[in-house]
Amino acid sequence: MSSRRIINSFNEWRQTDEPLVLATVYDTEGSTYSKAGHRIIISTSGDCQGLISGGCVEGDLAAHAHLVFVTGEARTITYDLREDEDAIWGMGVGCDGVIKILLQRLDAATHYEPFHTIAERQIVPHGGGTCVTVVESEDSELPLGATWIDWGTGSIAWQMPDDRMSAIRNQSDTLGNKSESRLLRQPSRGGAFTALHAPINPIPRLLILGAGPDAVTLVTMANEIGWFVTIIDHRQIRINDPTFLVAEHRLCVPLKEFPTAVKFDQYAAAIIMSHNLEADGQYLSHLTKNTDIGYIGLLGPKARRNRLVETHDLGDPKLTERLRGPAGLSIGADSPETIALSILAQIHKTLDQAQDKD
C-alpha cells in the first residue's frame, strides 16, 4: 500500500477522534518485506493500513497494538521469521528474516503526533526531512517513541527533553543528509538510548504534458501507486476527459502561458506527450533550460527527440542529461499500459538513484 493511501486513511480515521497505533519498523536482518523506517497505522478495530510483511504478521501485530491502546505505553516487538523459527510460528511464511517494530499510540488530544507531522512532510510540496525516533532507552526522561523531526526550515520534538534533542540534532548533523535509515546508540545524561534516524521521503509529484488517450493509463497508474499527478494540455476538450479526474490538478494552459502555469520546482519528474511537435518543443525547451526537474521524459522515437533538441538549441549536454527520450525502460512495451509501466519504472529508478547520491 502506498504512503499516500496510508495518509488518506489516517486523515479519515482521525476525524473520529479515536486513538490509532503507529507501527514503525526500526531494524531488520536477512530477507524481509519491509525495511527500517517503514510505517503503517492500526485502528482500534485492528484494521492495518499498510503492510509490514506480505500479510504474515499483521494479524498478530494488531493483537499487540491492542495492548498499546489499553495501556497507552509504547512497546517493541520482534518477529523472527528465519527458517529455523518458522515451525514455531506455524505460518510457513519463509521470509527468512527478523523484523523489529515499535508500536506507539496516537491520540486526538496530542494531534496524533508524531505521525501527523510525518504525514504532512510527505505530502506538502518541497516536503521530506529526517525523523529520529527512540526505540530503546535506559533514560527515564526519554521514553520509547520520543521523536524529533527536522526538515531544514523547521523542526518539532515529541516527548523529548531539550538537552537530548540538542544531542540528537548534533548527531544528525554529523550524519548529514543520508537516504538510508540508521540505528544509532547514543549516551545521555540519564542513560544510553538507541534511536532510528530515518528519512521522510516526499511523495513524488509527476507533471504530464499532453492529455491524449495514451495519457489516461499513465495518469491512472501513477495515481494507483500513490503519486500526485498534474496534467496540462492546451486543448480544453482533452483536459475535460473524465478519466483524468484522479489527477490532483487538471489545467488547460495556452502554450505561451506554460512557463508561468505551475511551480515547476515541486515536481520530481515530467513527461512530454502532447504528440504535437510545436507544443512538445516548447515544453521541452522550458523544462530543460529553466527548471531543475531531475527526470524529463519525451515520448516518440529517437529521431524525433534529436529533431526537437536541434530545433530548440538544446545540444549542450548539461541541458539534455536529464532527458529520457524515448521515455521508459526497454521492456518491449507495445501498448499504453506497458509503455506507462516502463515510464513509471524508469522514473522510480531515477528517483531512487538520486536519493542514494544525496
Brief digest:
The chain is an alpha/beta fold.
Please supply descriptive tags for the structure shown above.
alpha/beta; 3 domains; 358 residues; 34% helix; five-stranded antiparallel sheet; six-stranded parallel sheet; Rossmann fold
Q: Catalogue the unreliable spans.
A: 85-94
CATH class of the largest domain: Alpha Beta
* Helical percentage: 25-40%
The separation of the N and C termini measures 26 Å
**Tally of domains:** 3
**Fourth-level CATH superfamily of the largest domain:** NAD(P)-binding Rossmann-like Domain
Q: Which architecture of the largest domain would the CATH scheme give at its second level?
A: 3-Layer(aba) Sandwich
CATH third-tier fold name of the largest domain: Rossmann fold
How is this structure best described in words?
By secondary structure, the protein is of the alpha/beta class. The protein folds into 3 domains: 1-112, no CATH class; 128-203, no CATH class; 205-352, Rossmann fold (3-Layer(aba) Sandwich). Helices cover 34% and strands 25% of the residues. It has 11 helices and 16 strands. It has helices spanning 3-13, 58-71, 83-89, 115-123, 162-175, 213-224, 236-239, 277-290, 302-311, 317-320, 336-357; strands spanning 20-30, 39-42, 48-49, 75-80, 97-106, 129-137, 147-150, 155-158, 182-186, 193-200, 205-209, 228-233, 249-252, 269-272, 295-298, 323-324. The strands form 3 sheets. The chain has a 6-stranded parallel sheet with strand order 13-12-11-14-15-16, with helices on both faces. The protein has a 5-stranded antiparallel sheet with strand order 3-2-1-5-4. A 5-stranded antiparallel sheet has the order 8-7-6-10-9. The longest helix has 22 residues, at 336-357. It is elongated and about 65 Å long. The two termini are 26 Å apart. The model is unreliable at 85-94 (pLDDT under 50).
